[in-house]
Design goal:
Layout: E1 18-23, E2 27-32, E3 41-45, E4 47-50, E5 60-63, H1 74-77, E6 85-88, H2 98-103, E7 112-115, H3 127-130
Parallel strand pairs: 6-7
Antiparallel strand pairs: 1-2, 2-3, 4-5
Length: 131
């Protein structure tokens, strides 16, 4: 999963799921995992990160802006279409529309699996929409 926006127009946004196919010293070769650009090949460069200016020396760290992701937070999944979605509701959702965003990631309800200790969960809804 990509950790920062590299090329928004090109689809390389924070939270984009990628499949890494080539490992290089300065660049990764990846394919988009889903969406309109599914299977399209892209290069992900290493990014320079520098230490805080409050220290007496300057340290540069180079790393790839990706993270191994078996799971992702609801806000990272927003805007993505997935074939199957596993949802862990160990804690109730905490904002308006969050449960909707979660459930609507899958194209069909057959693709949704939930894990919850009870059969009900709290869904925060703005009262104005109900009246």
């Amino acid at each position: 999963m990509l950790l920062r926006n590299l090329d928004v127009r090109g689809g390389l946004c924070n939270g984009t799921r990628l499949i890494t196919t080539h490992f290089g010293r300065f660049v990764l070769g990846c394919r988009f995992a889903s969406g309109e650009r599914s299977r399209e090949f892209v290069l992900i460069p290493r990014i320079d990160n520098y230490t805080d200016r409050r220290v007496p020396f300057r340290l540069r760290r180079r790393q790839f802006p990706i993270r191994l992701a078996f799971a992702m937070a609801i806000n990272k999944a927003q805007g993505q279409s997935l074939n199957s979605v596993g949802i862990h509701l160990g804690v109730d959702v905490f904002s308006n529309g969050q449960l909707y965003v979660t459930l609507s990631r899958a194209g069909r309800m057959e693709g949704v699996k939930t894990a919850k200790s009870t059969e009900r969960t709290k869904n925060i809804v703005m009262k104005a929409f109900l009246s």
